[in-house]
Amino acid sequence: MCHVIVTCRSMLWTLLSIVVAFAELIAFMSADWLVGRAKPSGPEETDKGSVGPQEPYRPTLGIYGRCTRISHMQFSRRDTLCGPYAENFGEIASGFWQATAIFLAMGIMILCTVAFVSVFTMCVQSIMKKSIFNVCGLLQGIAGLFLILGLILYPAGWGCQKAISYCGPYASAYKLGDCSLGWAFYTAIGGTVLTFICAVFSAQAEIATSSDKVQEEIEEGKNLICLL
């Protein structure tokens, strides 16, 4: 018989697992890992003609994507084009960034799998007599290691030609040059920290769903068990 067990700790772990997976996925897909040097814009074009120069803009560069502003576009003010600069894996700007993409992708795949499974932990608490929370926590720890490896290798690629074109000639491995770090990099770091928090917290979720109070309510014949 299936027992639906909901506790504060198990629900918090499930929500955190989903948030972490989405945060890492969004960061990986974003082009806002590096914010390049400020570049001057041409005059702003409107229906009434030129109204003076626009404010300088700063293009952004991601692991495989970039955002830049299209100049001399008539009848538009701020035309920013975002998309992948690499059409395939081999065109990613640096070997270090290729390795980063592999490690991050592996970590994110594991996190997304755990996030999907975590939704069903209300009904299924064990797999082959092993706690599903402990298994998911172990997977989250492994995913966190993959994410750390990716984030460590990423700055090693700052010396590639693509990064130099955005950050200036002084950019090199682990040196930003004229660039600054974008929100996607910080989001990936924050998601990695939360990944390990989730891995540790999974043990608390397992304790909450196998507590004496839960067992008492199961013995009383209840199928829906909600505990604070």
UniProtKB/TrEMBL annotation:
One of its GO terms (biological process) is single fertilization. GO terms for cellular component: membrane. It is a multi-pass membrane protein. Pfam families: L_HMGIC_fpl. Keywords: Fertilization, Membrane, Transmembrane, Transmembrane helix. The chain crosses the membrane at residues 12-31, 96-120, 132-154, 183-203. Gene3D superfamilies: 1.20.140.150. It is found in: Membrane. InterPro entries: LHFPL. Belongs to the LHFP family. This is LHPL2 protein. The gene is Lhfpl2.
